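Our platform keeps sequence and structure together, in a single record for each protein. Nothing more is needed to write down the fold, since each code stands for a local backbone conformation. An entry from our holdings is shown next, in its original layout:
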Amino acid sequence: MAFDYAEYYKKNRERILQKRRQKYALDPEYRKKVKKRNAEYHRRTSKPKKPIESYQMVKVEDKTYFTIGIFAKAIGRKTITVREYHRRGLLPPPIFVNSRGWRLYSQKQTIFAKKCFKKFDNHEITQEELIKQLKEGWDA
């Protein structure tokens, strides 16, 4: 009969973990080795960073538009949050969408939205007032 490591580990898991924790706390070389191994693992398994092109300005018909990434940064939100705001109707749709389907915002829209969201974040206006202001002042 062969030795079953899985069964052994299952029975002795807590004792093994306790020994590892003690060794980590007391042995600086072991701690360094574990940290290096963890960093290598995370470097191998982490998702690649977002491409820079998602945070760029686009020129269309001699006008400069901002992508959703720049717009989201300006108002202090994530791009997924901005998309959700559009879906729920909290934020009016962008005036321009390019051939790739990117939502593009004018500089005027970006500055206006930034001011509105700043007031909202400082609790100067309610969500209803924010929506009303955005819909009234949302133009190219």
Summary: The longest strand covers residues 57-60.
